[in-house]
Every structure is written in structure tokens, then in C-alpha cells.
Structures
1.
Amino acid sequence: YYLSNKKLTITSVDGSNLERTSSIEFNDEHYRPMELFVRENKLILIGTKHEEGEIKPLRKSKILIERDNYYPTYNTYTVIKVYDIKNRENPELSKTVEVEGYYISSRMVGNNIYLIANKSINSYLCKNYEIDKLNEDAFKVQYLDTAVNQEKRCIAFADICYIPESESPNYLNVVSFNVNENKEANIDSYLGAGEKIYSSEK
């Protein structure tokens, strides 16, 4: 199993003979596969994608022309794709989970995948525009889980925890789920960022 040039290739090995079994090409220009895990008949692919969004500030600013303007934003998502590879010649996508934030690290423990992503908070908009007139969903963590539906949802502010004494304007997002079960993933968000990851079964 290997990734190269936005292409996943599954190759069978028989001694010194190599034969390509199947391949998956990712043609979305905004998506980039990065890492993979293989657990029995499941292949877990980790990647990132970028989407352009818009936030509409309503207060006038010297920077803006005296009329309504859109401040462009670019949202980064970390994407987990789970493929059923029982038939190596025809891998099937069985589940997709996306969480807003740039990829930090991931671990595979048994049948469970654990992933960490950091989302930056757009403090520029908070400082320069009236917060109560901005779309607050733009400042929440967005995620998608195809085990539930095909639409993105937001983590409510009341469900976001915080790390004491942390002043980092970021969300630390933790995703975990069993790759053999088509159940909703656990997604926890913390105010504060982290970059060093250690995992233990104990």
C-alpha cells in the first residue's frame, strides 16, 4: 500500500514479482492524502482539504469600501476516509469523517483510530468587527460524519472545553472511532492548542 501523486495504490507481492491490484486517484484539487493505516480488511486514509468560505462583517472599516463587503476565509479540514478492502481489487469507501483544523498526528490502537487537529480562531475579525453581528457558526468547529448524514455540523460553544492557563487562540480537536463500526465518531474540542502527542493503552 503506498501513496504517490494523490494516488493510492494496492500492490500484491509474490517474491520479487510486483503486480498492481487496484488504485484510487484523488482528483479533487483541494484534497491531499497524507498518511494511511491498514487494519485487517480496513484501510484508513488521512488527508487534508481546503474550502473557501465567506464571513460578512457589517461594521464599516477604513480598510473596506463604504458598503457591505465579504471578508474571504479559507477553512482547512482534516479528513479520515475508511475503505473496506476485503476485495483488494475493488476497495469501497465505507465512512468519511472530517473535522475542521490542520492535521497534527494520529494513532491506530486496535480497531480504533485517534486523530488530533488544530483549528485557528480568526482573531482579526473579532478585533475589528462587531462580534454580535458576525455569523457565530464561522467561529465554531465544523465537522462531518457520514455515519450520521452528509452535511457539516458545528460543535456548540457549550460543548467546547478549555485547557486552564492556555492563551492559545486555537481549538484542539480530538476524533476517535472504531473503524469496524458505522457509528457516529467521538469528536471533542478544547480551547487551546497542542502539538506534542503521546499515546498509551494504560
2.
Amino acid sequence: TAQDAHTPIGADPEDDEDVTILVPALTIDKDTSTSTTTQGGTATYTIVVTNTGNQDLTNVTVNDTLDSIFTFSATQPGTPIALAGGATNTGATSPTTGAGTLSWGVFTIPASGSVSITFNVDVSAAATAGTYDNTASVTTTETGAVDDDGTAAQDPDTPTGADPEDDEDVTITVPATLTIDKDTSTSTTTPGGTATYTIVVTN
């Protein structure tokens, strides 16, 4: 109660004895819009970091160590970083082309604010066919390090209901390689005779 009957006049705003408990918290979610690509192709990822606590998060760094078949592409989205809710990016940097360990400078994210980073990676022309997981992480002064584990579904640091295990998986397909072999089992024959051939095509 503000200015109740037993307090000095003008000395009792409602919140003069309130104590706010500050609880730092955040989520990180990494997704791909390129679930399938090819050797020598490109994959696109988005990392979203959201401040779900009730205090500012400072010295926020977002990091992503790519699988060895991926490297940061020279071709990137026009606006790779989106800041919401008063988030700021100081000392902004962009990973270098060809890098495999990525970081984008230092952020401050107020309560309910967020940072979204979208980027492209090149796939090695020598990549082996298969599905590749990846883990992105974020570190702040208030929370320490948290991550979106690419091998786990709905891990503790991701938004509820937004983290199936395969949401950042990229499957590399390899074009079919055909071989063809033609042989005969009739190396000699006679006029009016018959020759036999066998053709084998293998993928």
C-alpha cells in the first residue's frame, strides 16, 4: 500500500520496500533452412538467442564451431544480424570467408530482447554423404556458457517445443556415379554363329 496511515506523509511510495530478485536466463536455438544439399553446395543456418530472464545480459558472444566439411561462405544474407527488444551489437565483427570457427562480436541483450544471426556455409566438394549435426553456443557474464546441442532434442537451453533433434541437421547427398562394363563370353565364333555379350551397370 502506498502512503498508508502509519507512515510519514510523502515518504511511502508503494515500492519503497520492494525487493526485485534478478534471475538471468536465456535460450539459444539453431536451425537450418537447408535440410538437404550437395557436395560443393551451400547450407543456411539461423541462430536465435533470447533473454528470458529479468535483467540485462552483457558481454554476450555467440559462437559456432562448424563441422570440418563446412566453411563460412563469401556470400551472406543482406542483413545477417537482427536485433530486437533493445539488443545492441558492440565491436561487431563478421567471420572471415573460409573460417570454421565463427563469432559475431559482443552483444548486450535486455530482458525479453533477442539476437538473430543468419549465415551461409559452403560445403566441401569432397564431403562424404551423410547427415551432419552442429552445436552453437552463447556465453554471457550473467549466465556463463549455454548451448543448443545439435545431437539432442529439446535440451535445457532451447525454447520449449522448438528443438527437435534434427532442426539443424544438414544431409549431404552425393550424385550417383555409374560404371558400365561390357564383356563377351564368346571370344571366337564362326560365320552364321552366335556371340554372347553381358553388360553390367553399377551405381
3.
Amino acid sequence: EWRFEETGAGPGVVLADSSGNGHTGSTAGYGTISTPGVVGNARLFNGLTDWAEISPSAALSPPSFTCSVWVKLYSYPTTAGWGVVVANYGGNYQGWYLGIHSSGRLIFSVASLPSSAPWLLGTSSLALERWYRVTVTYDGSTRVGAVYLNGAPEATAAFSGFSPQSALSMTFGRASWFAGYFLNAALDQAILYPVARSAGQVL
């Protein structure tokens, strides 16, 4: 769990894992700053040169999972067509990521070998400069993934499967597998659970 309460700017700001599991992160690149969040502070990314990363760990790609984060989008990611909110993807059909399309719709991808990394797209377009609670879930037993916006279901579908990755860092605000898909947004109160929460448990 990363609450982004840290007040430092620029690269090298240590981001605490408040869950106690030791998955400490840090800011990277140039430009990231602290900004007022939903609760306390948040972390603002400029969409061009900065991101945050969490050290690689198999615990960040559990067989089933729920990822939830508050997002305030400042511009639509039109340069590359979409941008990353959080990614734990290896660029090789292993891992997962949550992003935002240039249309403002949410993107959720769960990858599996040898060559599957489809998108599950939300239906609503996020307005600029407004906080949203974004949640995605994946159930390894059923292979079903789901996207929620402010607790309301946006999309659900069965994926081909899930091949975890633990070679690369998990990132916020940029792709984990290369220097691209930056996102101009503030992020707050990010959490990753090693279970697929039900629709009734998603807030």
C-alpha cells in the first residue's frame, strides 16, 4: 500500500509501503512533486519525464489480485494513445497493467504466455482535474477480470490466463517495460491486495 504522503520533489524520494510488507518504492526521472490528495498528500506526475517504481517482487503479481488507486487526470495521454496508471508488466506477455486511454476510458490488461495481452476497456471517460477511485480485479481461478470506477462496475471479461512477472519494477505514471506511456496525473492511496475482491467489496 502506497499512500504517497511523502513531501519531497524530483527523483529519489522514498515511497513507504504502509502495509508493512516492505515493498518500498522511489520516484524517478525529473518533475514529480507532492500535491494535495484525497487523504493528505498525493504524488503528481507530469506525463513527460517522471514516474515512481517499486522494487521487483513476485508478491506484486499474485495469482489473484485487486489493485485500487485514486486518480486525478490533468491531460489525456494523446501522444502515445494511452498512459499507465500502474504497471507490473514485463513487455513479454507476462504481468499486468492499468492505464488510461486517450479517450479517458480505463484500460486493464492481464497477460499470459505465449502471446496474449488483451485490453479490457471501461465505458466511462474520466473528466480532467477530478478525483476518481479506480479499481481492477483478476480472479485466477475463473480468469475473470473486472474494472470499476468509483465502486461501480465498468467492464468484465475472461482473460486467456495470467503469467506473472517479477523481473522488472512495478511502476506508477509510466510503463514498467520501457520509457514510454507516461501519464499526466495525480495518484493517491494505491493498494494491491493478493485476492480478487467481489463487486460488493470494491469501494
